[in-house]
Amino acid sequence: MAVLHTHAIAGSHGGILTGLFAKPNLNRLFFGDSAHYIGLFYGFDDKSRIFRSGVRQMGVQFAGIMFVVFVNVLTTTIICLSIQMVVPLRMSDEDTEIGGGDASSW
């Protein structure tokens, strides 16, 4: 399945690029004060306060990515442990020796 590179990699890449290229006048539409929500690249030409806001925005983006990773790992662990209480998630040693495809036909 293409879950990892479709959702995790592309979503993380989009989050990082948002932190780099967040345009101040577009952020004003959502947040009111655009000086606090500015992309890192838009802060290079302005004062150091604006640059610090860009670094802060990158931190917010990375924190969001780490939060999503944490929630996904936690949820997947809970789901797998719940399923394992009902049905074994691993094949037996005998079935492993036969092979996955052959064991299902027996």
Automatic annotation (TrEMBL):
Domain of life: Eukaryota
Subcellular locations according to the entry: Membrane
GO molecular function: ammonium channel activity
Alphabetical UniProt keywords: Membrane, Transmembrane, Transmembrane helix
TM region positions: 62-87
Principal localisation: membrane
Ammonium transporter AmtB-like domain mapped to chain residues: 2-99
UniProt topology in membrane: Multi-pass membrane protein
GO cellular component: plasma membrane
Gene3D superfamilies per the UniProt record, alphabetical: Ammonium transporter AmtB like domains
InterPro entries: Ammonium/urea_transptr, Ammonium_transpt, NH4_transpt_AmtB-like_dom
Pfam families: Ammonium_transp (PF00909)
Membership in a protein family: Belongs to the ammonia transporter channel (TC 1.A.11.2) family.
Protein name: Ammonium transporter AmtB-like domain-containing protein
Organism: Populus alba x Populus x berolinensis
